[in-house]
């Protein structure tokens, strides 16, 4: 049977309100009394109900964390980093996983029912109406990896266009002239920006793209699309991929065809996931600063939760990418 606050109050010889104050940071209660109540609660195995605290108007400490397919390397890395940093900030992540085609608004509506203090959204797009409802309910939203149309929601995002410019400059200066592109899901924010950055960087150098293929950010799609590119009558001497997972697939495709990397074809990705540095790949890529992204997202969220900038305009943080040169390009 679950131990309640009433049980603690009876065992400690105090009121139920005193138990609540003992578990509320900053609440008026003598240090000796707080220590006594906490010791009794510990002996009984009592833990406060965070959701119930939220119903009384206090913060629950719950942060909704909306992510995509966690089976993919980047999403898994982002989830691990965000969960760790949320816990380090003495909060608790409430995981909401959404797949392509899922209704993100429905997931966030469910999160609001759990009295979350706020939400970090790293997958999908939030409707303007729901973003406004979250703000009005005191549960602000911070977008990660994408910026809402109109820019009226706090967001943290890597400078995707600059990242592709760094890659194109590196490949072109290395003598690569026939560049091919494997993009991700067409409608995603990162794919649009990275493709734009690629085309702008090529135009500045007076270069044209040899070929373009569409993957879905998975290793398998990178493998399939690279096989098509590398068996075409005119083969690229460099393949740029919209993320690292597809680049790892492209390396596998080159090896399957007996091609050397980077001798016959240079291959580059985007994100710098941990596997990019593994010995079998040694992938040249653009570092998408996950830790800095997470900390900036939490800073923006805490700022809103604490009431700073409640009526202020949204803050959009663009983090600088970094070119990481390894053996693949």
Automatic annotation (TrEMBL):
Keywords: DNA-binding, Transcription, Transcription regulation. SUPFAM superfamilies: lambda repressor-like DNA-binding domains, Periplasmic binding protein-like I. InterPro entries: HTH_LacI, LacI/GalR-like_sensor, Lambda_DNA-bd_dom_sf, Peripla_BP_I. SMART domains: HTH_LACI (SM00354). The keyword Transcription applies. One of its GO terms (molecular function) is transcription cis-regulatory region binding. Residues 3-57 form the HTH lacI-type domain. It comes from the Bacteria. The keyword Transcription applies. This is HTH lacI-type domain-containing protein.
